Amino acid sequence: MGLVARVVEDMGIPTVTVSTGRDITALVRPPRSLFVNHPMGNTFGRAGDRALQKEILRAALDLAVTATEPGVLVDLPHRWDEDFVFFTGEATAEARERQLKK
Amino acid sequence: MEPIRYVDALNNKYGAMGFPPYQWSENDTAPWTALEKPLSACTVAILVSGGISHCAAVPFNPDARNDHRVDAIDPDAPSDQYQIHDSYYDHADADRDLNCIFPVDRLAELAAGGEISAVAARHWSGFMGRTYNRSKVMNESGPAFVEQLKADGVDLLVAIPA
Questions:
Q1: Chain A hits for B156, Cβ within 8 Å
Q2: ipTM above 0.90, yes or no
Q3: Nearest by Cα to A17 from A36, A39, A45, A38
Q4: pLDDT digits over B66-104, tens only?
Q5: How confident is the model at residue A90 (pLDDT cuts 50, 70, 90)?
Q6: Number of domains in chain B
Q7: Is the model's pLDDT at A96 over the cut of 50?
Q8: Residues of A in contact with B32 (CB under 8 A)
Q9: For an interface test with A, which of B2, B23, B25, B32 has the most A Cβ atoms less than 10 Å from its Cβ?
Q10: How many residue pairs bridge chain A and chain B with CB atoms within 8 Å of each other?
Q11: The total number of structural domains that make up chain A
Q12: Where would a tag sit more exposed on chain A, N or C end, judged by fewer CB atoms within 10 A?
């Protein structure tokens, strides 16, 4: 995806990438990146949290205006409210519980 | 908490599934196109790579390699009419609220409030992971995608890897 952003930018359209994988983004180096330390899949927050979703989207759009240095990677200060691990595809206890409630 | 180290984690996971080792692109510099307009004058499109397709379309294949498919997404289609087929990440929340990963409703609200000029005529979903033939992205599928953005008068693209 970072590679695609680079092609888009190279062909004349500004881009901003919103990433949850900091190490990958630092390697690939899209033109402008906002790193959000959330679980992959929750880049903009939790289901139904419209305020946070909008806040993060706004931060991304603002970065497109304020960034001046190609390859810039900005860390969003917002923190996820609990520790999380790399997703392996195995159902977590929480996900199983959610499934049972359905 | 410290950010997860995905490069190692992904190679361990997909290596165990028989995928060849993945060498991410490493770049010391980045291309640059200055944003010449204020946001309030910008037409904005979103590109997401999380295996999201409209329910009427064929699902993405989570195990595909070198899948350069990219779907045009109608920004006016209700956001609960999408399916997610991707095994890279936990999309339980995004299954219930697409905006967790693909904030189409939030962007529409910013347009309605005048913070951006307009949502582009099309959003985009595609360029799933495990792309080993990266020169094809650089020379074929990427440029073809950019021509679509240009046709829609896109001023700014928000790219969301997943």
A1: 13-16, 61, 64
A2: yes
A3: A36
A4: 888 999 999 999 999 999 998 888 999 999 999 999 999
A5: low
A6: 1
A7: no
A8: 9, 31, 70
A9: B32
A10: 219
A11: 1
A12: C
